[in-house]
Amino acid sequence: MDLNLIPNIKHTDSNNFFLLAGPCAIEGEEMAMRIAEHVLKITDKLEIPFIFKGSFKKANRSRIDSFTGIGDEKALKILKKVSETFNVPTVTDIHTNEDAAMAAEYVDVLQIPAFLVRQTDLVVAAAKTGKVVNLKKGQFMSPSAMKHAVQKVKDSGNEKAWITDRGTMFGYQDMLVDFRGIPEMQQYAPTVLDITHSLQQPNQTSGVTGGRPDMIETIARAGIAVGVDGLFIETHFDPSNAKSDGANMLDLQYLEGLLSNLVAIRKTINQF
User: Fold this and answer.
1) Position 15 pLDDT exceeds 80
2) To 5 degrees, how large is the angle CA 126–CA 92–CA 30?
3) What is the pLDDT of residue 118?
4) pTM for the complete prediction?
5) Is the pLDDT of residue 62 over 80?
6) Domain named DAHP synthetase I/KDSA: which ranges (predicted)?
7) For residues 265 and 224, is the Cβ–Cβ distance under 8 A?
8) Which pLDDT value is given to residue 59?
9) Region for 29 from its dihedrals, namely left if φ exceeds 0, alpha if ψ lies in -120 to 50, beta otherwise
10) Ordered structural domains, the chain, with CATH
11) Neighbour tally for 181: CB within 10 Å
12) At residue 208, what are phi and psi to the nearest 5 degrees?
């Protein structure tokens, strides 16, 4: 898929990987603007095509008292303001058929969560908006099974689909990335590696998902080395106090160093 089909995307001729990055959830306007501005400065410097990511609501929670959002329309309006202020495209995840049309009024890319990627009606609803559809690979699915999710988008009259790998369940409380799946899924659609959710440690007895953020650069380097098309990173200036997924988000202060290293690896890979 041609990245230039996405409004306001920059640096598409840099031969770099593209980046979906931002907080797990939109907690408020100030935090979203602060993170977006910081990431944009880095990606402009490194010539990385950038799409700002933020969930307008969180439907998949371990406990009923977990944070779910600040209000659908309020959060979507913040995503729209980020886009208009910084002239960048945005992506958010949807959970119901009705979410698709609503979110499409505010963002450029609709993301199907991993646990919902087999929900045909949801995938079709997203596809029919005409937006790019980012399909998260189910933790329970093989790479080859994702061709069917991509085909649902195409059969709905939309050729704009991506796949994002976010790890595969390994036992009850850990995830693994099988890098053999990257080139396999690239046969079906451009493929992104989610380097933060891949390091989740789900199903903790506390009801709060754990993570291994210390391994983010390891996973990211490997993804770039095997030729992934894009990276997905959740980042926050204060992960320990983030309202969602703080245990596996990257501290914003480390983002520039990480991306600089990855761009250097990409340049080397491009020579082959």
Assistant:
1) yes
2) 155
3) 97
4) 0.93
5) no
6) 9-266
7) yes
8) 81
9) alpha
10) 3-269 (3.20.20.70)
11) 21
12) -115, 125
